[in-house]
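Q: Got a minute? One more chain.
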Amino acid sequence: MKEYATDHIRNVALVSHGGAGKSSWAEAALFASGATTRIGKVEEGNTVSDFEEEEIRRRLSLSTAVVPLEFRESKINLLDTPGYTDFIGEAISALSVAEGALVMVDSVAGVEVGTEIVWDYCTQFQRPRFVVVSKMDRENASFARALESVRRLSSEISFVPVQLPLGEKAEFKGVIDLFAMQARLGDGKQTSAIPADLQAAAEEARVAVIEAAAEGDDTLLEKYLGGEELSAQEIARGLPASAAPSRMVPIWCRVNSGSAMPNTMAPSAT
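A: Always. Here it is, folded:
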C-alpha cells in the first residue's frame, strides 16, 4: 500500500448491535476494493478482522481491528468494533478517533439495544454517519420495517434511503440505485432498467435524495429551485455536505455475509 497524505486518509468506525454483520461487510469491502481475492466468513473463522484465537473460537469480535483499504486516491481505515455491549469501550474508543461511522442494522431485528447505545455515542462525538440495512436475503427480512426502526432513533435527523432493495428474503436480487436511477444486480456490475412495478416508488424516493443533496450545496439548491434536473454526479457531490453535520443520514442495503454486495453501495457517480 502506498503512502498517503493526511487529507487522503479516512477513518470510519463500523458499529452496531452484535451480529449485525460488520465484519462480513468489511470482508466484502476488502474484496470489492481489490485488497483481497476472496471473502472470508465469520463462521469459518477466516475473516481479516477477527484474527485472534478467541475471536475465531467464539465467532465474534472481541476488540477493534483496523482494516485498511484503498479507494481511488484515498486510504480508508475501517475500524471494525465488537458489537456486544460487554465490549462497548472498544466502540467508544473507535468513535473518538474516527471521522465518521457506518451503523449496521439487521433487516430482521431492526434497531436493537446495542444500536441505540452506539448511536448515542455517535451523537456525543458529533460523528456523521450512514446506515446499512444488512442481511436482506434472510427469512423475514424487511427493509421498510428496519427503516421505520431507524427513524425512531431521532426525530431531528432526516433519514434518506439512497437505495431501494430489489426484492427481499430469498427474492433479493440487488438494489435500485437512486443516484443513476437504474437497477444494480448481483455484485453491482450488472445493471438494468428499474422494474415497472417499482418505478413509482423509486421516483418518489429519488425526490428525497435530490432535496437532501440540494440542501448541502447552495449552487445545487439554486439549480433545483429553478426547476433544473440534478445529475447523478451533482447528487453525489451534495449529499456529503448534508450528512456532515448529521442533519441527514443516508441509508443503504446489502445481503448477508459471503457476498460482494458493497459493490452495489457505490453509486456509479461517486
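A: The first helix runs from residue 22 to 33.
Q: Perfect, thanks.
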